[in-house]
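Shape matters. As here.
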Amino acid sequence: MTAGTRCMLMRGGTSRGAYFLAEDVPTDPAERDEFLLRVMGTPDPRQIDGLGGATTVTSKVAIVSPSRQDDVDVDYHFFQVGVAEPTISDRQNCGNILAGVGPFAVERGLVSAGAERTEVRIRMVNTGGLVTAEFATPGGRVDYDGDTTLAGVPQSAAPITLRFADLEGSVTGALLPTGQLRDEIDGLTVTLIDNGMPAVIVAADELGLTGHESHAELAADEALLNRIDSLRIKAGELMGMGDVTALSVPKTAIVAPPAGDGMISVRSFIPRQPHQAIGVFGAISVVTGVLLDGAVGHELAAAMPSGGGLIAVEHPSGVLQVDVRVDDSADTPRVLSGGAVSTARKIFDGTVFPGPGQRLP
């Protein structure tokens, strides 16, 4: 039998993933990628032979290690693992899986827990960005129980506050990769933005949608999915990312006026399939764009505070609160701050036995 590897399965935000210490996975990139595919049971649309849950939001991996950077506690390397296809990418961050990194670091002894609360300074290896995670550790142990709810998660949990730094141009090197607030692709007016996650923002009515469609309705519209895929591939070229056909970024976000008490309604895609909720970084990037006067979606937002603040983003499962503040008074807009409140829960801690798998092409 293949030797087992220590692993913790956690729900982070509205995603679920396998968390590893870097010392427990292969150091060679090719061997590491094959190992992660085997752990998840990829390629297989059911992922029946691994930990994956047959969706992109449950086929994710975090690799965590002590950081060598001053004033940083741990490094977090995120991997999006394919489901039916043997693909793996670290070209983007994941703010949902990020929510579990601080607690994982405490659980593994990389960071000492405070008597009541703990702050963990995290470097996101994928982009070099920094984030501080703060959460409750009464008695020096991570508290996963609480009354904070996340739309798309059936149970409440203890809040984890994420405060980000230096998200602008996380992948492309610029907040507005084309230098413009609006671009034209396939006859559609879009805003291309990168504040933690490269994103393509398009108004729902340009696609003949209301922007309030359910996840099932979007997933069943094959013509729409094909159009979304074409749009994001061409957007990736414009954003200087090259051929993104096999990548999970940029994300596409369809925006519309809110249907309820939120400030903007968003339907996001990762990369071709609709998201059942919305990712933290995706929400931050979209809100950043919507805050900019002249960008797609700016005129659709309701009661949006000038310059930003706490913004309620409606998505198919409910509402996500993000805190984004921008200054667009100058010719070049800049982001002042970004943050979000999330939750995480440890599901199991033990040993995973990777299957035989298949080699990467």
